[in-house]
Structures are given as structure tokens and as C-alpha cells.
Amino acid sequence: MESTLKNVLPLCCLALPLVFVSGACDLSLGGVEPACEGWRPGDVVITELLPDPEGTDTGQEWMELHNPGRSAVDLQGLLLYSARADGSQERAYLFESSVPVEARGYVVLGDVRSDALPAHVRHSYGDTLGSLGNSGGLVGLRCGDVVVDEVRYSGPIRSGVGRIYDGRLVPDSTDNDEPSRWCDAPPASDGGTRMSPGAANPACVTPLEGSDGGVSGDAGVPANTCLSSRTGTVRSLSRPRPGDVLLTEVMADPKAVADSSGEWVEVYALRDVDLNGVTLANEGSGRTLFGDSRCLEVRAGTYAVLARSVESAANGGLPSVLGTFSFGLSNSEGAHALRLFLNDTLLDEVSWTSAATPGVSRQLDPARRDPTRNDAAESFCLTPMDFRFGLGDWGTPGAENRPCVP
Fold first, then answer.
1. Which of 271, 311, 330, 385 has the fewest CB atoms within 10 Å of its CB?
2. How far apart are CA 100 and CA 289, in angstroms?
3. Nearest-angstrom CA–CA distance, 284 and 154
4. 115: which residues sit within 8 A by CB, 6+ positions away?
5. What does the alpha-carbon distance between residue 317 and residue 251 come to, in Å, rounded to a whole number?
6. pLDDT tens across the length of the chain (406 residues)
């Protein structure tokens, strides 16, 4: 399964054992003309992943690619890569031999460590990518500087369950960037495995509309219910009403880590609620619907953190993240807003006009933690500089806010 790469690699990589490590050398092949000319974004699309097989991960992980075009393509010369969700610790594999993908066809790539490939795996990248992250990460393909496709995925990843791009949608390298278009593979009608390697994906069953517009994130959990991580049982969802949840803290410009992975929002619950089916939106086109088979539970009198990344090293050392959102928060001067919706009902809204201070969150004064008082501009302030979290930024994610200093 090993590859000999000396004919294409820059000198800085020749000492490395078939694994490209981000920062150790130039993963664009150091200016050497790649043997993959003519590739465009979307020529192949990532449509399914199995980052967490049942039992040991080693040798059983795989990913599925789809060729949406009318002509066959060959992966030879492309670079397959994986990394953490923030792009760090990248590892890559070069296709040196021919790996054809038929028009409108699929190919499954796996980390098989022996010569015998299972029936569903067409080509093995061996141990080159290491293990895919079970709590999230990214995988992609590129030709030189052209990213053919790249997908970020996030947890919770269920053991032995494929993560699929919704089979009702046409595979597209732009549309598959949206996390809401992915789901856990639903149970098979014959009770078999929950995955579809090398074949068209089944339809995602979320969102399912119930009598109250509920959303269920998994075919094994009925609509308007969720799986409680505290009890391990399925229970009815507790839908929030206006005034039940408040937006209490915003980190729009982290300093310890990149904005794309370190932005976060804090929510406070005045009664026990689940955020399943709730949408977080900004003043523009950014929207994320939180839907999952597990209960996104916030107990009365407690806080929950919604963030760009679940990885502690990537998000600045946040405490437990309840859910992730995919859009960015603006840190410049101007009119900004964050809103929580359940269907078309506004649950809470906060707005501000000033620029963010790098590394300092904007927080609601706990004395004004009330649905009738948290809308005023004077109710929010920069977090007083007496509390650092994680990697050193100022804020109180998931914890009681500090009183605003006059």
C-alpha cells in the first residue's frame, strides 16, 4: 500500500515517511507541476464518511466519492487529505496509480492496512491519513491549489453509523459544505448496517415536521422526541417559547485562535428546554438549524455554548459545546444582531453596533438577565478583564457572567 513520492515531492519532504504533515512541507507539492491538470471544484464530491467504525477504527474507516459528471474521471495525481476541523495537523495521500470513477458513479477509499480489500473498498490509502477524528474534522481532495472538494464534519459521530449527504439532494461540492444537509444514515429496511458505501445514499429523515413543527435528527428516534444523554432513553422534546432562552454572551473576535473555529455564543435557559429545531441567525444570511437525535438540553438556570468548532484546541479551550453553527460573526463596526427562532417564532434577539475587541467577549450583565431587559444596548458590555478561559481569551463561556463595570 505504500507510495514512492520522490519524483514529485520537494526536498523538505523527502525525509518524511509517506505522510505529509501540515507545516513540515508545502502540500501544494512545492511548486512542482502536479500530474492532475484540468480538475475543477466539484468534479468529484464527498458523499459519505465512516470515521468511527464499530470496534477498532484502524483499517475500517472509509470515505465515499461521487462523480456527478457525464464522463469518467481518474483520481491519479490528486491529493487526498484529512485534518482537524480548523485545518491543523493535515496529513495527505497522493494517488500515484489509476483510480477511475465512472460517470455518475461512486468509489470508496479506505484505510485498509492489508493487501485484501473488503468488497466495498476500491482503493486503500493505508495508514497515510492516520485516524479520522471521531468528534469532527475535515477531509478533502485537491489538485495543486485547486480544491476539488472539502467537507467539514462534526460530532456526535455514532459508532458504526455512516455520515451521509442527504440522498434527496444532487451531490454538489458547494451544497455539501452545509452541515444541515448531512445526517446519520437511517436504519436499513432489512435491519442491516446503517451505511451505503459505493451506492446512492438514502434520504435523510430530518427535518421531519410534527404536529408542532418539530425536528428529529435520526430515523431511529421518532419526530418530536430525542435521546437523552443523561438517562439513555427517548423522551419528548421540550420546546422553548419566547422568554425561555436568552442570548447572554458573544465572542465575535477570538484572539487565541482563528475566528473560523473560535467564535462562540452563549445561551441561558429560564426553564428546562431543548434546542432541537431552534435556528440561530445573524443580521445577514447566516443561519444554522440545530437538529439531532440527541437532546440538545439546557437545564433551567444553566448556560449552553454554541460554537464554530467542538475541538477544544481549535475553539480556544471552550467547555463542552452543545451545538455548532456554520456562519461567521462580524467583528467590525456597524449594525449586528443575533436571533434565536423556533420555526417562525422569535425566541430572543440581541444587537450591537460597535466593533469587537480582539480576545474579549461581549456579555449580558447578570442583573439584566431578563427577557424584558436584555434587549437594551446598555445591558451588554465587554467582559470585565478578571476572567480568562481556555487558551487565554477573556470571557465566561458556559458560566455566570461578571457584573458590568460602569
1. 385
2. 37
3. 24
4. 1
5. 13
6. 333 333 333 333 333 333 443 333 344 444 444 568 899 999 999 999 999 998 888 899 999 999 999 999 999 999 999 999 888 999 999 999 999 999 999 999 999 998 789 999 999 999 999 999 888 899 999 999 999 999 998 877 788 889 999 888 889 999 899 887 888 888 765 556 789 999 999 887 644 333 333 333 444 566 688 888 777 778 899 999 999 999 999 999 999 999 999 999 999 999 999 999 999 999 988 889 887 678 899 999 999 999 999 888 899 999 889 999 989 999 899 999 999 999 889 999 998 899 999 999 999 998 888 777 777 677 889 988 778 899 999 999 999 998 987 7
Distance CA 212, CA 137 (A): 34
Is residue 228 exposed (0-12), middle (13-18) or buried (19+ Cβ within 10 Å)? middle
Beta strand pairing call for 163-165 and 45-50: antiparallel
Nearest residue to 205 (alpha-carbon basis) of 230, 228, 188: 188
> Residue 289 and residue 281: Cα distance in Å, rounded?
9
Beta strands in 353-403 (DSSP E): 362-364, 380-382, 388-389, 393-394
Query: Can you give the pTM of this predicted structure?
Result: 0.51
On whether the CB atoms of residues 27 and 5 are closer than 8 A, the answer is: no
Q: Tell me the torsion sign for CA atoms 350, 354, 357, 358.
A: positive
